[in-house]
Amino acid sequence: MTIAAILAGGTGSRMGGGIPKQYLPVGGRPVIVHTAEKFTAHPQVDCVLVLAPTAWLEHTRDCLAEHHSVTVIQGGETRNDTIRTALDWIAATCGTDEDHVILTHDAVRPFVTNQIISNNIAAVHTHGACVTAIPAIDTIVKSKDNAFAGEIPPRGELYLAQTPQSFRCNKLRELMNSLTPEEAHALTDATCIYALRNEPVFLVPGEARNIKITYPFDMKVAQAILEEEAACDA
Ligand code: CTP
Known about the structure:
With 234 residues, this protein is of the alpha/beta class. It is 37% helix and 21% strand. The strands form two sheets. Strands 5-4-1-6-8-7-9 form a seven-stranded mixed beta sheet, sandwiched between helices. A two-stranded antiparallel ribbon has the order 2-3.
């Protein structure tokens, strides 16, 4: 089974404004609706799970009321807790079949394409784990003191991770269970867990348009991308 877990449990503190960014409108519809539709429309996705903040559960269900194939449940304290909640739901609802795969996707990346989803599904079945990524455009500078430039890794070896990030459910559960509390605290996403345990994660080509809405400026970019898509469809 191929299950899409749309991670919408965050509060959007960098966006500000009181309403979590996944509920802000782009082109007249909430970001989360655009995102969910990319997965409900994909023929190889069997099940779409949306994980939302407790206070926004009813609102999320209302937004997605037309999408009968979507299940909305409560997310977790951190992004990884939200992924863990999705894994628990899958085990309880769909069982622990070895073939179950989870596509974890940020609710605030509404411009994921059909091609990226298809490539994730193919890659996770072949390689067991994959991360969507694009080559780094800018030179990336490390700084330990946040004042002076330290190491500057060769740009040709650097990628920017996007989502979906996809995994065999049982393996991800096993790796998450193996983390110490300190490791669990330090890791920002599931791909980091694989990297920490030296488990291979295949790179799936992403796209520049697959932006993550984080700051108010990103809402303007999102609006522009949507208008460009509408113009192409017309
Ligand atoms: N996310 C989640 N559960 C959490 C925290 C984050 O499902 N406890 C989701 C967010 O809703 C978002 C995605 O993970 O779709 C990427 O996280 P980020 O952009 O950091 O979102 P927020 O945590 O909402 O934003 P901020 O860091 O600015 O507070």
